[in-house]
Amino acid sequence: MKVENKIIHIIKKGMILFLFIILVFACEFQGIDEGENTTGITDADRSGQPDFTVIISHTYAELVIGQYETFKAFVINSGTAASATAVLKFQIGGSVTFHSIPVLQPGGHFSVCRTVHFDTAGTYLVTAIADVYNTVAESNETNNTKQITIPVKDYGKPDLYISTLTYAGTPKVGNFMNFIIQVKNNLFCGMSPATRVNVRIGGETFGQFYNIPALAPGQGYNLSRGWTPSVAGNFRITAVADADNDASEKSESNNTKYISVQVTN
After folding, report:
1. Domain limits of the chain?
2. What's the rounded Cα separation, in Å, for the pair 91 and 70?
3. Average pLDDT over residues 142-165
4. pLDDT confidence of residue 187
5. Percent of the chain clearing pLDDT 70 (strictly above)
6. What is the pLDDT averaged over residues 248-264?
7. The CATH number of 47-153 is which of 3.40.50.150, 3.30.43.10, 3.40.50.10860, 2.60.40.10?
């Protein structure tokens, strides 16, 4: 009986020591400072997380009043783990849109396009922010935002002219010919409205008309007109930009271009 009493006494002491250890750990846990890493996730562990990076692309380095431009925001998962879904904030000037980013595998990407019409001169800020609400834990939380600026200039009136008037094919009776025309808006001019080009062959009264879209400074538009001559002779080919005078231009004296074509038998 004495031996059994000693064993019971030892067990009681062991239980008291065990409870004391638990109490010490509980007190230490309650005393953890705010902001201390209690998750056990180290910087090395973060290498197994997603990482959103952002790119913005566009066409023109400079715009003019009245011009449209398309901006594309790319969100790339540059991390080593799949991401959860998130939200992309895409702001162009004062216009803001939000877009759902799907789950992206490592190396995967998501893109959004926005086309904007600029009717006021100035410098516009374009911003794309991936995971704008910070719902995705990433290996790098500092590279989710991309910003660029785009200047919009006021160059006044447009200036349309025929920059190219040539042909392909042998000018011979019965041979098909193709006249190639380009209408262009001069650099450092305003945006042109939609217009029409007129192309006349020889003594045609009206010729043929072709619709031309609005053109930015330096932008051109190509068109062609086919023709098979039925008689020999010298033919004057005339192309006229802004044939209906729809555009108020800096110069109204450079809209017409012509060439002569000698057709043989």
Report:
1. 47-153, 160-263
2. 13
3. 96
4. 86
5. 82
6. 96
7. 2.60.40.10
pLDDT value at position 25?
Answer: 39
- In one-letter notation, the amino acid at residue 23 is L
* Sequence-separated (6 or more) residues with CB below 8 Å from residue 257: 161, 162, 165, 238, 239
Stated pTM of the model:
0.63
Residues 94-106 have pLDDT tens digits of: 999 999 999 999 9
Q: What is the mean pLDDT of the chain?
A: 86
Instruction: Tell me the C-alpha distance between 80 and 47, whole Å.
Output: 7
At residue 40, the pLDDT reads 40
47-153 with 160-263: one CATH topology? yes
CATH architecture of 160-263: Sandwich (2.60)
Contact 124, 91 (CB under 8 A): no
What whole-number distance in Å separates Cα of residue 182 and Cα of residue 223? 6
SS (HEC) of the chain: CHHHHHHHHHHHHHHHHHHHHHHHHHHHHHCCCCCCCCCCCCCCHHHHCCCEEEEEECCCCCEECCCEEEEEEEEEECCCCCCCCEEEEEEECCEEEEEEECCCCCCCEEEEEEEEECCCCEEEEEEEEECCCCCCCCCCCCCCEEEEEEEEECCCCCCEEEEEEEEECCCECCCCEEEEEEEEECCCCCCCCCEEEEEEECCCCCCEEEEECCCCCCCEEEEEEEECCCCCEEEEEEEECCCCCCCCCCCCCCCEEEEEEEEEC
| Contact (CB, 8 A) for 76 and 56 | no
Work out the average pLDDT over 65-86.
Answer: 96
3-class secondary structure for 95-118? EEEEEEECCCCCCCEEEEEEEEEC
